[in-house]
Amino acid sequence: MTSHTTPLLDDIKAMAQLREAHRERWANIKPEYAARMRSQNRFHTGLDIARYTARIMRDDMAAYDADTRQYTQSLGCWHGFIGQQKLIAIKKHFGSTQRRYLYLSGWMVAALRSEFGPLPDQSMHEKTSVADLIAELYIFLKQADARELNALFRAHDEAKSAGDQSKAQALLAQIDGFETHIVPIIADIDAGFGNAEATYLLAKKFIEAGACCIQLENQVSDEKQCGHQDGKVTVPHEDFIAKINAVRYAFLELGVDDGVIVARTDSLGAGLTKQIAVTHTPGDLGDQYNAFLDGDFIDSAEEIDNGDVVIKCEGKLKRLKRLASGLYQFKPGSGEDRVVLDCITSLQNGADLLWIETEKPHVGQIAQMVNRVREVVPDAKLVYNNSPSFNWTLNFRQQVFDAWEKEGKDVSAYARDKLMGQEYDDTELAQLADEWTRNFQRDASRDAGIFHHLITLPTYHTAALSTDNLAKGYFGDDGMLAYVAGVQRKEIRQGIATVKHQDMAGSNIGDDHKEFFHGEAALKAGGKDNTMNQFG
Q1: What 8-state DSSP symbol labels residue 305?
Q2: How distant, in Å, are the alpha carbons of 110, 156, 204, 472 from that of 244?
Q3: Beta strands across the sheet bearing 272-273
Q4: Which residues contact 412 (CB under 8 A, 6 or more apart)?
Q5: Neighbours of 309 (CB within 10 A)
Q6: Could you give the residue ranges of the DSSP H alpha helices within 80-236?
Q7: Res 229: pLDDT
Q8: Residues annotated as part of the active site
Q9: Is the dihedral of CA 56, 456, 486, 425 positive or negative?
Q10: Could you tell me if 193 and 17 are in contact, meaning their C-beta atoms sit under 8 angstroms apart?
Q11: I need a surface site. Which of 82, 195, 366, 394 has the fewest CB within 10 A?
Q12: pLDDT grade, residue 227 (50/70/90)?
């Protein structure tokens, strides 16, 4: 999507009039240079970004409602440079950033960005580090804009100097129609890092840094666990609704009226709660929550022992099962029903999108829950975690195995529990499983209401894998060839912009600015002795 800017020639004229108003005091200021610099910085604040990207996301949600093939995607990025390279790659390969977002994972902030060092995903990291990463990502994306536009300006100057007016006009059209690298970020606020007031204050930091979309989960803040770990503890709906309200108020206070809230439920894998919900009448929201609590119905107060907790539920006395930690257990097998109630309640109380944390990537399982939600809220749709915590290969091979077995197909050549084995890689089952994996996002968006597909921490894994490969070769027999053949040669042949790392870091932009500021006295870095010239 192209960010709205004044056409370059019109802005140059406006700058010329402004300079003229200041007469000789601004004689050194060239209107063309000022207009270029303004074009290269299209977003002045994080709030500018949040308002711009919120509109994109709302338009994308409407497009998905009309056609489920119009789903959106993102990858989680733990550093501004990683996010920048992702968007540069998307523009290079697909020509547009449309329907491609960034995801900011609390897991990766905890593991990679905390001053305490690597931490588990339990809300122990500094909460402001998430907002800092949002700001950092947008700094790098803005720099990608500046760099690409700078190259267009240089090419435009060369075309004019060569007298090629046709090429110069074409380049000017590219500049005016430039598509920014700025895209929506879905930002993970965990369980809010405290009470509703703490959630509101932190949400403001997120939004001021540029976030148009905040993901909030229904776990107890001080008992927070990664969605793919055990020991998760959820809160009653009233507590969660208060935090949804807090985030909405933060958006409205800051003028991001169409900000997006993703309500995440961990109830499918959470068997515990810290609180008994407040209830006033049978069947109200609190009573529905309490009905899921595990316990035994008793006939009289004489059956109550010291320390027992008893509630009235379903018209009877129920003695609740309580752990030594003071936490209460939910009934076994109640997870899906709790997820459906969570989702309906969140959407009816201000959330825009849902996140159902599941234990495996299974279209049928997701669709079963979403279809129940849609019976009450027809336009319900999901943000879904295509998680690296799933063993995708084993999961889909087992799904194919189960489908074949149900169809009556002979599966005697396969050991279901050992399907991860390399010996199965070339089999018909493995090839079909790969095809199901390839189509998972398309199928799930069509059949299970998934608007946005993300992978939370892919770049955590890619960084580890590429570093392992380089270290194995470089410190082994290959020596320098490991870098040359494994990295640099591929960068050159695949057109990866970082091969000119000085330019990527801003040296050409800096050289042009030196000319703007110093004129002919500018001391530039990009002359004939710059070794970056070896890369053409």
Answers
A1: P
A2: 23, 49, 13, 48
A3: 233-234, 272-273, 328-329
A4: none
A5: 15
A6: 80-94, 106-112, 128-161, 165-176, 196-209
A7: 45
A8: 226
A9: negative
A10: no
A11: 195
A12: very low
Tokens of 353: 């999108």
Type of residue numbered 449:
G
Please tell me the distance from the alpha carbon of residue 235 to that of residue 223, in angstroms, as a whole number.
Answer: 10
Residue 228 pLDDT grade (very low, low, confident, very high; cuts 50, 70, 90) = very low
Alpha helices for 254-318 (secondary structure H): 285-291
Going by their DSSP bridges, the two strands 316-320 and 260-265 should be labelled as unpaired
**Rounded CA separation 156/164 (Å):** 9
Token pair recorded at residue 300? 């009289």
Tokens 């049978």, residue?
Answer: 282
Which pairing describes strands 316-320 and 295-298: parallel, antiparallel, or unpaired? antiparallel
Residue 225 clears pLDDT 90, i.e. is over it: no
470 sits in which H/E element: helix 458-474
Predicted local confidence at residue 175, as pLDDT: 95
> Is the Cβ–Cβ distance between 497 and 489 less than 8 Å?
no
Decide the pairing of beta strands 353-356 and 260-265. Answer: parallel
CA 514/CA 387 separation, integer angstroms:
46
First CA to last CA distance, the chain: 30
Give φ, ψ of 137 to 5 degrees.
-60, -45
Instruction: Identify whether the C-beta of residue 383 lies closer than 8 Å to the C-beta of residue 445.
Output: no
**What burial class does residue 438 get, using C-beta atoms within 10 Å of its C-beta: 0-12 exposed, 13-18 middle, 19+ buried?**
exposed
Q: 62 and 56 in contact (C-beta within 8 Å)?
A: no
Pairing of strands 295-298, 272-273: unpaired
Token pair, residue 483, equals: 């870098």
With 0.70 as the threshold, say if the pTM is over it.
Answer: yes
